[in-house]
């Protein structure tokens, strides 16, 4: 015992198998850690040393609006995605596996289709003279075309569509682990279908909702293509703003600072989720 | 008026081309412990599920105190059920699980607290109230499931092979618990199992299922000592079947000739047989004795092997016609020196032997 204690004081203890991890670590440091540090460095040195970039971003009303808008879009997209994904995931979880794998195939196929193609397809559908508006006018449901594009609605529709697989896949995993007999037991205990959903199915599927929701939220925060094509100028998102700062304004310092703020927020959210899930595990829950 | 408490009327359930339950009719008085016994696929679970409301029968009816249950959805039937697998809610503590049926019924909190405490005391798990189901053994989980199913005082408790996932020792322990709880609460229990020992041990009455029909209903003793069919005789307990030729029947007792030519009279005839008809004689292994008694019939056998099983010996024997016979006399009835392979006579009471169609 005493020998080991002494050794612990002397050297840093490396986990077993550390040497095998070295190549991966070198890769991560070279291609992830160093660039992020370079980004951080730029944000506090350009155009001159100091925190003026952060002060500008956090103090200015215009930038604040972009931050607010980014969180608004990401929140709306996440909520709508959860609402759409849950019934789909439940259906996939209880449907016969042969049929489920076909539906899975369709979902994955959409993920493999080029992102730009899919976004342009939505433009064709959502335009003032697009398929949806023309069909609705022809059917006499509306007189004037609905504003479906170049606004929050367009961004939400386009992004929910792209994010759905990232929500459905973890959720199906969680839902499949729930014994359907548990729900039958709840019914015999006197729980109405809504009570069984509210008190049993929903709490049991929370880990999946949290995992998928966080992934969707974080991806949405930094999303560029879909908001750029389907959104309007009045509700610009952070990624668009960073692109503009660097591409058009060549303001690397401000762009880096904005990117770094996004990174910090993302990591804080991730840490929060780890804590929540971790705490649940510790208490012996799901 | 003699309206039965729970009544199953001509229940039939088909899944596509397969008929799981053909025609089940059964009346169950209040407070009875009735077991559906049968091999897997005999329709016993399907019948139970129809009562629970998980499956709508193709035809027939289920009546509780004269009122049909079929139009009532599961969550309004007010029936308790314990399942084969542990179906506790994994995110709720033991106490919350037991409280669940009371909470969804919006009972006052004080009543919920008291009932949960009573129920946990009933299944002797008071000290586990704040644990999560995952931290409990299988047997403890089934006891919590039992407490949850009884918390709302259901008139009927359904149990679908609740002990099949437990090991033998735990099974016996929980069987004793179930008997005690049945005694203490007086709840009507419908219990499904394929384990005949469990059925004999627990039930007031057993309904033996075969291919979607009830083969025989009666107490364990009825089924064991007075089997209505050879299937019942074969399913409950152990039995030997010997080929026999029917010679004559009078007053329900028959005279037959066995394959080795010996003629035995006074066996019980289950059915009517013609002269010379091929039949089968059923004798329980423990009905054989090693000593002659005034009423006994005899059977010449060749003893192949004897094994000692504690209270009984188990003898593997063969008749002169080559039919295998399983004989289980008490250990005291047979000295160990008799155990060597030899030819000898064994004896049985013809009144404990049954004649069935071949």
TrEMBL record, chain A:
Membrane topology: Multi-pass membrane protein
Membrane-spanning intervals of the chain: 20-41, 62-86, 92-113, 154-175, 208-230, 250-272
Swiss-Prot/TrEMBL keywords: Cell membrane, Membrane, Transmembrane, Transmembrane helix, Transport
Localization of this protein: Cell membrane
Domain ABC transmembrane type-1 positions: 67-273
Record GO biological process: transmembrane transport
Family matches, as CDD domains: TM_PBP2
One Pfam family here: BPD_transp_1
UniProt GO cellular component terms: plasma membrane
Gene3D superfamilies in UniProt: MetI-like (1.10.3720.10)
Recorded family membership: Belongs to the binding-protein-dependent transport system permease family. CysTW subfamily.
PANTHER family: ABC TRANSPORTER PERMEASE PROTEIN (PTHR42929:SF5), INNER MEMBRANE ABC TRANSPORTER PERMEASE PROTEIN YDCU-RELATED-RELATED (PTHR42929)
The protein's name in its UniProt record: ABC transporter permease
TrEMBL record, chain B:
Domain called ABC transporter: residue spans: 6-236
Example GO BP: putrescine transport
Cited SMART domains: AAA
A single GO cellular-component term on record: protein-containing complex
Keyword annotations: ATP-binding, Nucleotide-binding, Transport
Record InterPro entries: AAA+_ATPase, ABC_SmlMolc_Importer, ABC_transporter-like_ATP-bd, ABC_transporter-like_CS, Mo/tungstate-bd_C_term_dom, P-loop_NTPase
MF terms (GO), sorted A to Z: ATP binding; ATP hydrolysis activity
Matches recorded under SUPFAM superfamilies: MOP-like (SSF50331), P-loop containing nucleoside triphosphate hydrolases (SSF52540)
Family from the record: Belongs to the ABC transporter superfamily.
Entry protein name: Polyamine ABC transporter ATP-binding protein
Lineage, uppermost ranks: Bacteria, Pseudomonadati, Pseudomonadota, Alphaproteobacteria, Hyphomicrobiales
């Amino acid at each position: 015992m005493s020998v080991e204690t002494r050794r612990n004081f002397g050297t840093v203890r490396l986990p077993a198998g550390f040497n095998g991890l070295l190549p991966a670590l070198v890769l991560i440091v070279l291609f992830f850690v160093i660039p992020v540090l370079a980004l951080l460095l730029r944000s506090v040195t350009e155009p001159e040393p100091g925190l003026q970039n952060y002060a500008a971003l956090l103090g200015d009303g215009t930038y604040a609006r972009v931050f607010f808008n980014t969180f608004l879009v990401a929140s709306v997209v996440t909520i709508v995605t959860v609402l759409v994904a849950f019934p789909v995931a439940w259906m996939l979880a209880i449907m016969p596996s042969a049929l489920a794998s076909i539906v899975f195939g369709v979902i994955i196929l959409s993920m493999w289709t080029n992102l730009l193609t899919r976004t342009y397809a939505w433009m064709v559908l959502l335009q003032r003279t697009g398929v949806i508006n023309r069909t609705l006018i022809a059917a006499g449901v509306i007189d004037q075309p609905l504003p479906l594009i170049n606004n929050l609605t367009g961004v939400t529709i386009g992004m929910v569509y792209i994010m759905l697989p990232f929500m459905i896949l973890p959720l199906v995993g969680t839902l499949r682990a729930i014994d359907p007999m548990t729900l039958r037991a709840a019914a015999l205990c006197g729980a109405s279908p809504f009570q069984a959903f509210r008190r049993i199915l929903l709490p049991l599927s929370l880990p999946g909702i949290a995992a998928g929701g966080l992934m969707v939220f974080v991806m949405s925060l930094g999303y560029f293509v879909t908001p750029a094509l389907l959104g309007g100028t009045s509700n610009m998102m952070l990624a668009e703003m960073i692109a503009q700062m660097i591409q058009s304004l060549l303001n690397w310092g401000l762009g880096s600072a904005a990117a770094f703020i996004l990174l910090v927020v993302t990591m804080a959210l991730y840490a929060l989720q780890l804590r929540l899930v971790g705490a649940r595990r510790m208490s012996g829950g799901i | 008026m003699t309206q039965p408490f729970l009544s199953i009327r001509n229940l039939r359930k088909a899944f596509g081309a397969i008929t799981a339950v053909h025609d089940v009719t059964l009346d169950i008085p209040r407070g009875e412990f009735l077991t559906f016994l049968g091999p897997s696929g005999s329709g016993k679970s399907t019948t139970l599920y129809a009562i629970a409301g998980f499956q709508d029968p193709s035809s027939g009816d289920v009546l509780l105190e004269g009122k049909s249950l079929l139009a009532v959805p599961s969550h309004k039937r007010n029936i308790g059920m314990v399942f084969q697998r542990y179906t506790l809610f994994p995110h709720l503590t033991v106490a919350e699980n037991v409280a669940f049926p009371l909470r969804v019924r919006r009972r006052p909190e004080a009543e919920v607290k008291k009932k949960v405490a009573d129920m946990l005391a009933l299944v002797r798990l008071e000290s586990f109230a704040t644990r999560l189901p995952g931290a409990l053994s299988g047997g403890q989980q089934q006891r919590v499931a039992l407490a949850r199913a009884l918390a709302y005082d259901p008139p009927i408790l359904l149990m679908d092979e609740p002990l099949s996932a437990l090991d033998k020792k735990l099974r016996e322990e929980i069987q004793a618990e179930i008997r005690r709880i049945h005694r203490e609460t007086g709840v009507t229990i419908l219990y499904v199992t394929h384990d005949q020992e469990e059925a004999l041990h627990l039930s007031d009455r057993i309904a033996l299922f075969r291919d979607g029909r009830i083969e025989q209903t009666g107490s364990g003793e009825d089924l064991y000592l007075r089997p209505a069919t050879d299937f019942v005789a074969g399913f409950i307990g152990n039995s030997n079947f010997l080929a026999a030729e029917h010679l004559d029947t009078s007053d329900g007792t028959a005279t037959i000739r066995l394959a080795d030519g010996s003629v035995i009279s006074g066996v019980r005839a289950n059915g009517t047989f013609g002269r010379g008809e091929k039949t089968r004689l059923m004798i329980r292994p423990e009905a054989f004795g090693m000593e002659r008694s005034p009423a006994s019939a005899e059977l010449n056998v060749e003893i192949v092997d004897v094994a000692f099983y504690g209270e009984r010996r188990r003898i593997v024997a063969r008749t002169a016609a080559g039919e295998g016979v399983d004989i289980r006399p008490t250990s005291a009835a047979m000295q160990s020196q008799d155990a060597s392979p030899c030819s000898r006579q064994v004896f049985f009471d013809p009144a404990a032997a049954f004649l069935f169609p071949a």
